[in-house]
Write a structure and sequence with these properties.
- The protein has 290 residues and is an alpha+beta fold.
- It contains seven helices and twelve strands.
- It folds into two domains: 18-145, no CATH class; 148-274, no CATH class.
- The radius of gyration is 19 Å and the shape is globular.
- The N and C termini lie far apart (40 Å).
C-alpha cells in the first residue's frame, strides 16, 4: 500500500456518533450566558463536488477558517475543541458524507486583538466564532449534559519520558513556526510525529485515536517536545474520514497504541471511568447558500 500522509498545524478531530443515553439533565455552560458575542466578518461555504473522500485541508489563518473538502462533522468538533467524537450526540449522515469548502475571516480589529493573546486565550474565542457560524448558516442549536464514560488517564511511566525537548526558539524562522503534527500509515502501521508540541496537544491526538477522552496527569512535563510514535491500530481504533480507504490488516506482532505510548514515549495510559461533558445536538441542517 502506498503511504498516505497528512500534516496539520492544528489539532485534528474526526469521529462517529455517541452511543447510549445521558444520565443527567441538560446544563447551561457559563460561557454561553456571559461571554461576549464573536462573529466572522465574511463567510463563504460551498459544497465540494470533487468526489474525493480521502483528502481534506483545514487551517486557521488569522483566526479565520480556510478549509477545503472538509466533512462538516470536523468543523462541529472544532467548535468545542473536542477530539473525541463520543462527546457528541448522533448527527445526520451528511455531516460525514458531504464535503465543503469554507472561507471565513474576522474583521481587522478583532484580528489585531486576537494576535495579542496567547494560544490558550484565543482558543475559547475561536470556538465561539465557529459556534456562531454554525448557528447562523446551519441553524445549529445544542445543550450540554454530563455522562459517565470510559476515560484514559495519562501519567509518566516508570523510568520517565523517552522523548526529547524541542530546541528553544531562536532567530531561525524554522524554529519559530507553530507546532506541527503529521500522521502517516503504511502497510497497517500508523506513525505519528510531532514537532514543538506540548502534552495537552498530545492528549488531544491520543483522544482522537483511542476514541475516548484522555486526561493529562503527567507531572513536570510543561515544555514543548519532539515526539515520534508508531503503532498498529486495533479494529476501529483509528478515526478516518467517512468513505476513506481502510488500513490493511494489522500485524498482530506490532504494538497497539497503549503499549506504544508506554514503550516509545515512557508514558502510561490507564483506563477507568469518570464524568465527561457531552454536546447534545438539538438541531443542525445543511449550510445555507452564500
Amino acid at each position: 500500500m502506498a503511504a498516505r500522509l497528512a500534516i496539520f498545524a492544528v489539532p485534528i478531530a474526526l469521529g462517529v456518533a455517541l452511543a447510549g443515553q445521558s444520565q443527567s439533565q441538560p446544563q447551561t455552560h457559563p460561557a454561553e450566558v456571559s461571554s461576549p458575542t464573536y462573529e466572522y466578518d465574511v463567510v463563504s461555504i460551498k459544497l465540494n463536488k470533487s468526489g474525493d473522500s480521502k483528502h481534506f485541508m483545514v487551517n486557521f489563518p488569522g483566526d479565520g477558517i480556510s478549509a477545503e473538502n472538509v466533512p462538516m462533522r470536523l468543523i462541529v468538533q472544532y467548535a468545542f475543541d473536542f477530539s473525541d467524537s463520543t462527546r457528541f450526540s448522533p448527527m445526520p449522515s451528511w455531516v460525514d458524507s458531504e464535503r465543503y469548502d469554507i472561507e471565513a475571516k474576522v474583521d481587522p480589529a478583532l484580528r489585531e486583538t486576537l494576535s495579542k493573546l496567547s494560544r490558550e486565550e484565543r482558543n475559547p474565542i475561536r470556538q465561539r466564532l465557529i459556534q456562531a457560524l454554525l448557528k447562523d448558516r446551519m441553524g445549529f442549536t445544542f445543550h450540554r449534559e454530563t455522562k459517565e464514560l470510559q476515560v484514559y488517564t495519562l501519567t509518566v511511566a516508570k523510568g520517565g519520558p523517552r522523548f526529547q525537548a524541542s530546541k528553544p526558539p531562536s532567530a531561525d524562522p524554522d524554529l519559530r513556526r507553530p507546532p506541527i503534527w503529521a500522521t502517516s500509515d503504511r502497510e497497517g502501521v500508523v506513525t505519528l510525529r510531532g514537532e514543538r508540541v506540548d502534552i495537552a496537544f498530545l492528549t488531544r491526538i491520543l483522544t482522537l485515536h483511542l476514541r475516548r477522552p484522555v486526561t493529562d496527569k503527567t507531572i513536570g512535563l510543561t515544555g514543548n517536545y519532539d515526539i515520534t510514535l508508531c503503532f498498529v491500530p486495533e479494529d476501529g481504533q483509528v478515526q478516518r474520514p467517512a468513505g476513506s480507504t481502510p488500513l490493511e490488516a494489522p500485524d498482530p506482532l506490532g504494538p497497539d497504541l497503549v503499549a506504544a505510548v508506554k514503550d516509545q514515549l515512557g508514558l502510561k495510559l490507564q483506563l477507568g471511568k469518570g464524568p465527561v461533558e457531552i454536546i447534545v445536538i438539538d438541531h443542525i441542517e445543511r449550510p445555507s447558500g452564500n
